[in-house]
Amino acid sequence: MKNQQFVMTGLGRMELQDCPMPVPAPGEVVIEIHYVGICGSDLHFFRFGRIGSKVIDRPFVLGHECAGVVTAVGEGVSGFAPGDRVVPEPGVPCGGCALCRSGKYNLCPDMRFLASPPNDGCLRRYMAYPARMVFHLPDAVPLLYGAMAEPLAVGLHAARMGRAGLGKSAVILGGGPIGMMTLLACRAMGVTQVIVADLFEKRLENAVRLGAQETVLASGTDTAEAVLERTGGAGADLVFETAGSPVTLRQACRCVARGGRIVLVGNQTEPVTLDLMPLMVREASIHPIYRYRNLFPVAIEALAAGRIDLSLAEPSIFPFEQSEYAFQYTTEHGQSIIKSVIELVPENRTEVVSQ
Ligand SMILES: [Zn+2]
Ligand SMILES: [Zn+2]
User: What is the pTM of this model?
Assistant: First the structure.
């Protein structure tokens, strides 16, 4: 057995390199990685070498969404054995600080997160990982979808923070990958009416396939007005801003219902000017979210029970050897691809995108 990894060696460039075979430290398992999803953050690092203050200044391994099979178990690990199908959660919190102990470990100041500098990612054949952040994947769930549990957890966290439930209406501003995961989460959690708005027709088609009842083509339309119209003038109980744009954030403030909740999912990287008066008179609130917490088991359970069907997302699959191409292709086709996933070890599947 030998280990290999794809290393980002410059902007828009990546190469395959041999690397040491990991040995599990106490508390760790070694995972043979079968699938790695390409996340928006991976693409951003690939193109620009940085996200805000997080800068890549050395050869770097991307990828934080993965699933695979345990091949070795370190000292003191119980509950795992070689051959187990697993999904690692990409963030390892300290486990001891007040936030960790309160359950809000996603806010841990000492979080180590895959593919977030200085920590390398998982675009490699084998990885040692703390067993306490690894979850079993039932046989009923393909490893391909196990690798998509991470973005799904983001969608579930957004829906939870918006207090999704029966009888509610929701609008998702932005039909990209995270918007689509939020849509799946809202539908699974019983939200009655889900509207998706985006600038691109193709993304709205995806949204309808994934369960949106209504869509708004945002180009040349006042999205907030359109949402008010589709909700009988009341506005949406939940407004998810997933585009990370000041424009959609302002729209969110205009189309949220009285007593409603705006959830900030997309990264607002620029300062933004807001008219807060519409929120005041409606007692509407804004909830920024950061990643997710305690939701991998929920995501995996929902997949196993068939409550969420990721096949609807029609992921695009690329072979490991073509990882660089996969990143380039996904960058160029961001408007049509919901999710790109790199395949290292095929699992009963056929249609693979090839160069
Ligand atoms: Zn991700
Ligand atoms: Zn902590």
Answer: 0.95
